[in-house]
Amino acid sequence: MAGTTASLVKDTAIYGLTTISVKLLSWLMTIVYSRILTTEGMGTMSNLYAWSTLLMIVLTYGMETGFFRFINKPGQKEEEVYSTILRTLLSSSLFFIILGIVFMQPVSNFLNNQNHPEMVAMLFAIIGMDAFMSVPFAYLRHKGLAWKFMSIRVTFILLTLLLTGLWVIFTPQLKAWQIIREPADMVPFVFYINLICCIIQLLMLSPYWAKQMRGGYNRSLIREILKYSWPILLLGLAGSFNNQADKIIFPMLFDDPSVGKSQLGIYAACYKIAIIMAMLTQAFRYAYDPFVFGKTRESEEEQKKSLVKVMQYYIIFTCFVFLGVMCYLDILKYMVSPPFYPGLPVVPWVMLGLQMFGIYYNLSVWYKVTDRTIWGAVFSVIGCVMTVLIIIIGAPLYGFMACAWAAAISNGVIMVLSYVIGRRYFPVNYKLGNAAFYALLTGGLVGLSYLIRHFIANSLLSALACTPLLLVFILVAVKKDVDLNKIPIVNKYIKKK
Known about the structure:
single chain, 497 residues, mainly alpha, 19 helices
């Protein structure tokens, strides 16, 4: 199990490659969807997947974090913990899927998708399978089977690309057969593809859950796990709603649902450009949970030293990513078609919000290792309320820009709250001055990139002109904080003087 900074770097590299591949798939799909779907179709798809994110949190009810906590507890039988959680999730997921099939028409009516209720049934099936698979994937991480984790996820990606390619190729024929009569008929095919890929992924995971479910079921254990995990559920639900509220609430603020979904489609497409920040954050989180709970067996002093170093590197690399996206935004914008360009101003705000949420997640270790997970729920509710208020008040005045501002402001507030309150229960001397330095450095370089892009109209030339700004950041980071000798692969070729 990962328990050192070196193993964290290794696991982050593997999980990061996997996560980046999954997010890259999202990028590629955005390129396709923005050229096949209308802005309204893109909005419909984004709205449904936003709901799916929330329902996914409800259906896993904090079991993933609970799994890591209890499977590492002294005296607990690993097989029993895993089997108990698997059986619990299987039961709830099957019940959820049945509900989706039975009530697909009423739910479709509620979501203003009356003409395609089958999308709701498919969405419920996808969510149910994803919720169940979350623990087998966590099991692979716990066992250190990073390459197996990666192979299953990459297969999912390649299959999605293959089926999407076939869909694009045969779209003219589908129109000729009257299967696709209008632009709205294109959207269900996104869910058909996702459903097929989820089923195959579930089958590929079967060696890691089918036999393991025979390990028994401990009722007292599941009660203990649920007691630990329910605040994680609230944390995840409120936190997820904080990130998805824009895609759920925004279209509701329009009298005409089609206009609301069209505006949401523009916002959601450009949101995808900023997804590289989510790539790094999610990759970090995959390796971070096993790392943190593995550290509970070490001395508190050593644990805190590692946390400081991890936070320092996280801030440096996310600042670098932020700068890189802003320097090359004039090229990255071509991943969406011109009708979606009005949403480009949301990109820096979305990235800032994602970066601060990542910092907040790193800070959250204090309430996980001290079993005060209720604080996570409190912070998430605060952020959630702020997000909703900012969107409701700001959207009628500023449109989808209010959604981007809401994420940045609310994530910034809960980040500060977690740090301040965490000092009381599990004080860690994070390098605040160093963080402020990189924030100012990044802000200054981003400002210069804006000037360069303003005066150089050609996208390629402006990107080339901005590249030295990235080199400046790298040189400063290497000179000041980054020890190249401790980075795998790089240390084989570079000897720091």
